[in-house]
Each structure stands twice: as structure tokens, then as C-alpha cells.
Amino acid sequence: MHTKMVAVINGAFFGLVALGIVYGVSLELSEYRLHQAYAALQADGRPLQLAQIIPPAIPDTNNAAPVCQAVKRKLKAERVGEKNQKAFTRMSNLYDEMLKTNALPQAQAAFRQLLLRKPVAEALQELDEGSARSGCRFISDYSKGPFSLYPPANLLMGLTKIMCAAARVQMADGDPAAAWQSELTALRLANALHDEPVQLSQAMRHQQFDLAAETISNLCNNARPSREQVAQLDVLLKTFEDQTPLVRVVDGERLLAGEWYFNTAYSKAWRAAKGVRRVKMLIFLTLRASCAPFRFFDLAVYLNFMHAAALQAGLPYSAMDLVWEKTMARQSPWYCLSARAGIAGFSSAKKQTIDMIARARILRAGLAVLLWRQEQGIYPENLAAVHMENLADPFSGKALLYRAQTNGFLIYSVGPNMRDDGGEATTHHEKDDVAWRYVESVTR
Fold it and tell me: Whole-angstrom Cα distance, residue 98 to residue 205?
């Protein structure tokens, strides 16, 4: 009995020693992998500190953000209708109603009445002037990582809807100058979050741009912009032809989310989380503390992926982006949970960015064509006539496709499937060209 007990104790001892050796070797190897991952980021010039990606503060005199917030307060203070609704909410909702054919006349009439109110008119005039300032920076606290209060994207979305609705009503009322001025304000608001390193902010920016782009094509159905207005629109549209925000978002997600989870002190991470998120945070922090080698391996794999993703984000669009994402996911070890979570959705975000670039270039080319039609009386045979032949389709890398017609034109990109579908798009994406098909109205 004594001999067996000694054997058990000896076995347990040597087992613990072996486990300790394995743990020590794993820890050394994981720390080495992590050091390599950080060294690669540093060598490539990727930001390693949060301060490197947070947009710098700007003086209030050059900042459009305080103006946007002040306008929202004024519109919320103005009460309308029998339900005593806030004008900000009512005007934003009326834009959505204008997109419904059966509700368009009533929505325009209701919005028109609001535009006639002196406080509303003054607020929108203030917004028009303030949005032209050189920058837009909201006061945001990034110290809580994924739980931080980021720039109020919903505020900008609401104001963009209001200005797009104002442009449509002003055009319907025969005031194209005011309509195009409102559209310029909408475009400036849509690009206000250009430098924000947050995925949610960039996703909202893309949605704002879609609203402004749709409004531009709608306004052109009623009155073409003047040469001066086309020049102003062209300058603003160029600001959306940029993949830099996507690259910045990848770095931002790494620093604001991934590395925050791994490197933030237990107590600080616990205080930042609220409600149900505290349960998830408790589980994550427990796993993080339970086995250092797994934690370091996970972080190293995550950093390597985000490094590769930042490089991929700046490259031209490729049908292989989705394949690359899936390949990275398969290559991640099963225990690297954070790395696997960080991989998801990259290809979708890149496709959304490239789509926005395509729409911006199509609008620029289309506006130049309309200006030529207005001054020459006919549509140009090609984009070279309007000096837009060098506008590349960001999906294919080739020139945008253009077809002149007797009473209009078609300008389009081949879209994500990188196949020429004749400017057509279908719900199920068999055809997914990005196009502007312009047809002159009979009344004009």
C-alpha cells in the first residue's frame, strides 16, 4: 500500500513537473510569437497607440460639429403637429415617406410647411453655413474601447435626411438654386466622419452618402446643376473616392476593440462594461487570466490578421477578398477565438467602400455629361469629351462604361461580380452593376 502511494505521489510530481515544463515552453513560444507580431506592425508603420488614430481636436471656429449639435437642439425644441412631435424627428421621418410614391405629395406638403417656420429656416441656414467649415470633430471618449461613446452618427444621419428632403421639396417648388445648395450641405454632412477610426461611423457614412447620391440623381430629373454647382459637387464627391478610411477602421478596430480586451486592466474593463455585456466580459476576462499562453497565441494571431487586413484594405478590389477572409479564418487555430471574431465581415466592409467609390465616380462623370448636354445641346460620344476618361471603375480597374443615347445616357461600373451586365442589377445579385441611367423627362 505504501509503495503504491509513493508511486502515485511520484507520478503526480513528475506529471506536474512535465506540465510545468510544457507550460513554460508554451509561454516562451507564445511571447515570442506576440513579440514578432508587434515587431511586424512597427516595421510596417502601423499605429501601435490609440493616440495615433484618434482625430486631433480642431478649434471651434473651424469645427462643424458644434453647429450640427446646436441645430439639432433647435429642431428638437420646435414642436409640430397634434402629437407635439419634435421637428428634428418629424422632418427626418418625412424624408423616408418621400421615398414612397403613394405618400410623396403628402410628405412634401408637410415638409414644406415646416420649412416655412422661421426657427426651422434659421436652423437650416445655420447648418448650411456651419457645414462648410474646414473640419468636423465631435468630443468622443475612446478610453473605454468598444464601450466608448463614439461620434453621434445618428445625429448626422438625421440632418442628412433633412437636407436631402429639403432639396427635393425646393426643387419641386421651382427653386433649383436652393435645392442644389441643400444638396451640397447634405454631401458635406455625409463626409463629416471621414477620419473616424470606428467601423460603425464609417458604415453610417456610407449610408449617408447613399442618401445624398440618390438625391443628386433625383434632382437632375428636374433641373440640371449649373457649371459652378457641378464644380462644387465634383470637389465634394472626390472626397468619397478614398480607401484610407477603411484602412484606418481596420487599425481602429485592432486598437479600440481587440487590443483593448487583451491589455486593459481587469478592473477598468469590468467598469466599462454594462448590463449583459458584463457577463460576457466576465467570461472573457476569466479565460484571459486562466492560461497566458493561449492568450498570447490568440493575440498574436489576431494582430497578424489585422495587419494583413490593413494591407488588404488598401489594395484594389478583388473577387478573392472573400476567399482571403475565409482562408484566414480556416488557418486560425481553434483556440484563437478573438482572431476568428476579428476576421468576420472584412470583405463585406471593403465591398461597401468600393461600391461608394464607384457611385461617387459615376456621379462625377454623369454631372459632367449633363453639363456638356446643357451647353452643347447633345450628349457626348464618350467620357473623353468631358475629360472623365481617366475615371477608373474601382471594381474592374478599367474605365467606367458609358453609353450615350438620344434622350439620356448610361454610366456604370461592373460591380462586385466584375462582369458587364449591361448596367443592370437584380435583387439576387445575378447582375450587380452599379449604374446611373439618366432619361430626360418629357416635361423638360
Answer: 21
Looking at the fold, whether 46 and 170 belong to one and the same domain comes out as no
85 and 177 both lie in a single domain? yes
Give pLDDT, residue 439: 92
The reply to whether 320 and 385 lie within a common domain is: no
The whole-number pLDDT of residue 286 equals 60
Please report the pLDDT score of residue 57 as a whole number.
87
Domain range for 407: 357-444
Q: What is the pLDDT of residue 51?
A: 87
Nearest to 60 by CA among 138, 173, 155, 169: 138
Which residue ranges of the chain lie beneath pLDDT 50? 276, 442-444
0.70 surpassed by pTM: yes
Of 344, 367, 386, the residue that ends a domain is 344
